[in-house]
Structure formats: structure tokens, C-alpha cells
Amino acid sequence: MSTPLLSDDELAAALQDLPEWTQTGNSIARTVEAPSFLAGIELVRRVAGEAEAANHHPDIDIRWRRVTFTLSTHSEGGLTGLDVQLARTIDRLAQES
Questions:
Q1: What is the model's pTM?
Q2: Confidence at residue 1, expressed as pLDDT on a 0 to 100 scale
Q3: First vs last Cα of the chain: how many Å apart?
Q4: Given pLDDT bands bounded at 50, 70 and 90, which one contains residue 82?
Q5: Handedness of CA 45, 54, 28, 88 (dihedral sign)
Q6: CB neighbours of 13 closer than 8 A, spacing ≥ 6?
Q7: Which residues 6+ apart lie within 8 Å of 49 measured at CB?
Q8: How many angstroms separate the Cα of 6 from the Cα of each of 14, 70, 81?
Q9: In the β-sheet with 27-33, what is the strand arrangement from edge to edge?
Q10: 69 forms bridges with which residues in the sheet?
């Protein structure tokens, strides 16, 4: 089953509600600075659980307390509603940390 790519207008509207996220090409990314290394790892663990449940997985880069999440729907070659949904979930989890 295919997931439609977001139009430029749809993506712009979604990013207005996701101010921590930036678009680069066919992906969006956000870096979270955790209070400690272990807190960052715990955030990754929680995001991984949500991503697995949604069957939509981010690229994750961990550098000490800084965790960068990059989202794109690789099978579609760009950004879809799945990316926006996961970005909102990551924002919620980051706020709870």
C-alpha cells in the first residue's frame, strides 16, 4: 500500500506546527539535547518503541547528549503523513523527558 507524498503546501503547514523540525531535501530533522547521556538513550528507546508500533523508523544519530532524528518515507522517495505523525510523537516524547 502506497502512502502519498505531501505537497509543498501540506508540508509547509505541517512544519508550522513542528517548529523544532527543519527540512533538508526529502527529509525533516530535529536535534534534542537531553539532560544526560542516559536520558538521551532512554528517549531513543521510547521513540524506537513508538516507531516499531507505527512500522515507520527514523534515522537516529546519537552524540553524547544530542540526539538527532531524521525522518523520510524512503519507500515513497520523500515526506508523507507518516513522517509528520512520527515527528509529533517524537516532540511529545522529548517534552516528557
A1: 0.94
A2: 58
A3: 34
A4: very high
A5: negative
A6: none
A7: none
A8: 10, 16, 7
A9: 22-24, 27-33, 66-71, 59-63
A10: 30, 60
